[in-house]
Amino acid sequence: MKLSILIPCYNRERTVVRAVDSALSCNWPEFEVIISDNASTDNTLKILEKYSANSNVKILRSDKNHGPVPNWKKCLDHATGTHVHWLWSDDWVEQTFYAKSLDILVSKKADAVVAAVYVDRENDPTSSFVTYSKHFDQESGHEAAGRVFAFWNTPQSPASSILPMLQVRKHFYQGVGWIGVANVDRFGFGTDSLILAGSLSELSKIYYINLPCVHFTGAADSISKQAGGMKTVKRRYTAAHLWFMAHTGYIPPLASFVRIVYQAIYARYI
Length: 270
Description:
By secondary structure, this protein is an alpha/beta fold. Helices cover about 40% and strands about 25% of the residues. The strands form two sheets. Strands 1, 2, 3, 4, 5, 6, 7, 8, 9 and 12 form a ten-stranded mixed sheet that branches.
């Protein structure tokens, strides 16, 4: 069981060291950290040079910026693990995340693990908060995917999850393009959600870590802010979810379906 920790990055000189160092805290018997720099114009690549001698680290470079989704795909194409953890370069994980995930995958024979998240508000630490913690420990992949699509106390990002490589490769969608007024590919909102939900939808046993050990950074220069704020981001996610259900025939559980219809109406897609 080998873990591939994938860190795509662009202009993250302030945060990339924290992300990589947290990845290197991994205690799996076999793991690799694959970092793909998307032609950063700051000191990100120079900072990454200090990891070049680490045998667990592979650093990929691009001569031009290809956009976020192709850069994610570049990471994935070089991965050799049986399981995947996506770690965005402005986020980080506590060592307990990898330790608990490995224990659950082995002892519980789980197919995937999803952790609760601590959202760090850099500009206002007093407004930081814990999210995605649940009152239960496991459910089916069909139910878990429905929660993602319904925005039901489950992250849209695969960054809080350990997923099987086979499903991640299958559900990495490129070229979805415009759906209504939303370009799913431009910032990757929708692509990331479908990696998570699509993978979960095919699995049997999903386990949750209900103590937060994954940190999402609410930074001023985060992609969600660049994309126009959370309302715009949510519309992109909704578009991607409807596209997935139309193209795969996935039908969520009834409770999730009702919430999905509400979200679609709210986003003006139906």
